[in-house]
TrEMBL record:
Beta-lactamase-related domain span: 56-388
Name used for this protein in its record: Beta-lactamase family protein
InterPro entries according to UniProt: Beta-lactam-related, Beta-lactam/transpept-like, Diverse_Enzym_Activities
Signal peptide: none
Length: 402
């Protein structure tokens, strides 16, 4: 172990930067390439501050990649990012599952006001919890809309495992049915639909998809989303070969920067696991997730392939909840597991009102900007807060737009 501050002056010598302009011809009338290249300075800065290790930023505009830069840290225990590097998506799994729900909605197989027990009978007669701690029968059922908007009353329920706080693990359950039934025993923190609380809602929707389609969640996602979007490295499991490609996790432990390949995965990523958590469980590559972002930017289509309708894209990015007052998405409301920028002044990054996106537990981030025909994607793996990273990358991006 090496104290982080002891090697800060030296590690800059080992940073490698992929040529940001290597994959595109600059359209100078749409953006300033020299300003855009300042993002590399941001990428180095967040390494120096111990916010992340090796990281990649990709900016796509007007049908082409205008910036694609990998900055490798050279820190002991970290690994260089390549086009084959795999990242845990954690909550960036949620938008993928949400799109799957939109497919079922478009096909008339579900309705937003469906009570969840219509499809998952075990969830009938939910219990709510009073502020006093006492429970009582909720006045109404949880609906599909409540789950999509994180207004069900279910949150996250971390557990202690080997002395560590674990947010969520597939090893706690036999399959998604077992997961769903286990949630029934947890009282809702408030009346369904009355408040916002981020939590396991999208993973319950993953079970709903299984019941409606008669397929595993992964099979349905492959058939309707991952296959058409050419996201062949996006899945719920890792083979032995793929484990080698997994990016290490940065942890700041009492001022010491350490990297861990598998110790803090929390999820098993076993191919045999039947607990495919639609709110947290997938891994992916930069290229794969960029294809998903491109589909959202294009109002539901990718290379002429229809995934969902523009109406569905509009629906998932509709602000539904009060603005978040602090954290990564300050100045934003939330929709269906997406942030939507509602107050550009409070956000302070030059980003226009209406951009939308989300992030993951281990530092991955994306945003879609349909006004400027642009999306941005940040891929890294860190346990550190992502607020500074996300703000600085966006500031550098929008400073470059003419």
């Amino acid at each position: 172990m090496v104290k982080f501050l002891q090697f800060v002056p030296l590690f800059l010598l080992f940073i490698s930067c992929k040529d940001p302009g290597s994959k595109t011809e600059a359209k100078t009338e749409r953006y300033n390439q020299s300003r855009l290249n300042r993002i590399a300075t941001v990428q180095r800065d967040i390494i120096q501050k111990g916010l992340t290790g090796s990281n990649q930023v990709l900016i796509f505009k007007d049908g082409q990649i205008i910036y694609d830069s990998i900055v490798n840290s050279g820190l002991r225990g970290d690994e260089n990012i390549t086009d084959q590097t795999i990242f845990p998506l954690w909550s960036m799994t949620k938008p993928i599952t949400t799109v799957a729900v939109m497919i079922l909605l478009e096909e008339g197989k579900i309705f937003l006001d469906d009570p969840i027990e219509k499809h998952l009978p075990e969830m009938a007669d939910p219990k709510c919890q009073h502020e006093s701690g006492n429970t009582y029968p909720c006045t109404r059922s949880v609906t599909i809309l409540d789950l999509l908007a994180h207004r069900s009353g279910w949150g996250y329920y971390p557990r202690k495992s080997d002395g560590q706080q674990v947010l969520l693990s597939d090893l706690w359950y036999k399959d998604l049915e077992d997961f769903s039934r286990s949630m029934v025993s947890i009282p809702l923190k408030f009346e369904p639909g009355s408040q916002y609380q981020y939590g396991i809602n999208t993973s319950i929707l993953g079970r709903l998809i299984e019941v409606i389609t008669g397929k595993s969640l992964y099979e349905f996602l492959k058939d309707r989303i991952l296959g058409p979007l050419e996201m062949h490295d996006t899945k719920f499991h890792l083979t032995d070969d793929e484990k080698v490609r997994l990016q290490p996790l940065l942890r700041n432990e009492n001022g010491v920067i350490n990297f861990y390949k598998h110790k803090y995965n929390e999820l098993s990523y076993l191919k045999s696991s039947e607990v495919q958590l639609g709110g947290a469980g997938m891994v992916s590559t930069t290229k794969d997730y960029a294809n998903f972002c491109q589909m959202l930017l294009n109002n539901g289509s990718f290379k002429g392939r229809h995934i969902i309708s523009p109406t569905s894209v509009e629906l998932i990015k509709t602000p539904l909840n009060p603005e978040l007052e602090n954290g990564t998405f300050t100045g934003c409301s939330t929709g269906f597991s997406l942030f939507i920028l509602t107050d550009p002044v409070k956000d302070g990054t030059l980003s226009p009102k209406g951009i939308f996106g989300w992030g993951g537990y281990h530092g991955t981030l994306f945003w879609i900007d349909q006004k400027n025909n642009l999306f941005g994607l940040v891929m890294d793996r860190t346990s550190q807060p992502a607020t500074d990273v996300f703000r600085k990358v966006r500031i550098a991006t929008y400073q470059a737009l003419n």
